[in-house]
Amino acid sequence: MPSESRPQASALARRVHGWSCQAFPVGMGTGAVYVTLSDIKEGSRTLTTIETIFFFLNIALFLLNTMMLTAQAILYPRQAWRFIRDPVKGVFMPLVVLSFATIIIGIINYAFPMGHVSIKVLYALFWVYVALALVTCFPMLMIWFNNPHDLNKFSPNFAFLIFPMMLVGVVSFNILQVMNPSDARAVGVLFVGYFFQGLGFFMTFIYIIIYIIRIMITGFMDGSQANSAFVTCGPPGFTALALINLGVHAQEILDIHGLVTPRAGEVWYAASVMCALMLYGLAMFLFLFSVLPYCFKLHQHLNEIVGCWALTFPNVGWINATRVLGDTLNISGFRTVHLIMTIIMLMIWCILIVLTTIAFWKGLIFFSKEEDVLRDAVYVNRVSRLAGEKNRENASNSAHQSQETLVFPSHTGMHVDPNDQNMV
User: So where does this one cross the membrane (predicted)?
Assistant: First the structure.
């Protein structure tokens, strides 16, 4: 008899099985480029074209990641559930919502001016984002906090579980930029933005404190975790950016609608600028605290290239806050710093996209071992087969039971089982 051929997993199956939410930072890093470019004061038509290209590239990456993860959940549910419960990879799940936030900002910057979307659509997208942030963050927080975690292995990436709620404030002020301040809906967007920005920042600030305690015990993080140190720049940077912009809109909205006090808008704006300046200082400190040990702590392995995308999107907050503070305080040097950091952001993206493509082509990332794919595929097939056999068994038992049961005409009121010993 000819020997049976050994089952094999195709390259596509290994890709689907090995995909994870760690792919979303690539799209978010792409979104970080056009978000920082859009804040350059002296914009041009060429610059807008470059931003639009990055915007559509971000959408393409978002769709690719979503389709691959959906296919994985259908074909390999055990692997999908394994990633969600993983203490390291599971924290990247909320990045799906963060990627959606960058797309909303892109729609506001590039689709709305062209008349492709209306205020009603943007307002609806805002509430969709808020709902997605809540639906994603709270279940993941319940899963994560249901298990103990070692302080010596703590990573700032764990703060990703809060990031979607924190970024509501950023999405909020972007929506308010195109809304009429006299619109009653603007009040809700403003207050919700402040509410979630405060919630998100104070929760992530606790994570930053734990991070400081961890490096006091173990020293600076090395290897792939050296990249995650830049995540600490995100909460204070984005909060500083959101507070100033929300304060600008509060000046008009609170005054027009006669809320709180006649001078509430001015007070909110002044307080927002003061708090933003302090948070900006914290973000700058955490950035330097991350970049100085980075060169001698990072392991230069292509299989860890995905973690390097943390160099991009967490830094968008303080980079754009630099430009906003420059306008608010009339300091031209801040605008220069913003321009330099935006150029560096673009250069880092170019380097990372090349290295990520090489790692992807060589199968170093998002590529499962063949035996892992076959094991999960066998499990799925076994479950399907057992379910089919169970359904057939139930159907057979039902048919057998119906044949053995004799039912007299309804007018007799009698029901007789042939197995009844009293029958003659």
Answer: 53-76, 88-112, 124-146, 158-179, 191-217, 229-248, 268-289, 339-361
Q: Give the Cα separation of 366 and 22 in Å (integer).
A: 9
Phi/psi at 167 (5° precision):
-80, 0
Task: Say if residues 23 and 66 touch (Cβ distance below 8 Å).
Answer: no
Structure tokens at 28: 């978010």
- For residue 179, give both structure tokens: 């809304």
Kindly give, in sequence order, each residue whose CB lies less than 8 Å from that of residue 40, ignoring residues fewer than 6 positions away: 47, 323, 338, 339, 342
- pLDDT for res 40: 84
Q: How big, in percent rounded to 5, are the helix, strand and coil portions of the chain? A: 75, 0, 20
407 three-state secondary structure: strand
DSSP string, 67-106: HHHHHHHHH-HHHHHHHHH-TTGGGGTTHHHHHHHHHHHH
Radius of gyration for the chain, computed over Cα atoms and rounded to the nearest angstrom: 28
What is the Cα–Cα distance from 30 to 259, expressed in whole angstroms? Answer: 39
pLDDT tens digits, one per residue of 369-405:
888 888 887 655 554 555 455 555 565 555 555 444 4
- Name the pTM for this structure: 0.84
> Which residues are CB-contacts of 35 (< 8 A; sequence separation ≥ 6)?
102, 105, 316, 320
Tell me if 70 sits within 8 A of 15, measured CB to CB.
no
Q: What is the dihedral of CA 19, 20, 21, 26, to 10 degrees?
A: -50
Asked if 107 and 51 count as a contact pair (C-beta separation under 8 A), the reply is no
Question: What is the C-alpha to C-alpha distance for residues 387 and 379, in angstroms, rounded to an integer?
Answer: 12
Mind listing the pLDDT tens digit for each residue in 323-360? 999 999 989 899 999 999 999 999 999 999 999 999 99
Q: State the DSSP string of 6-65.
A: PP---HHHHHHHH--GGGHHHHHHHHHHHHHHTT-SS--HHHHHHHHHHHHHHHHHHHHH
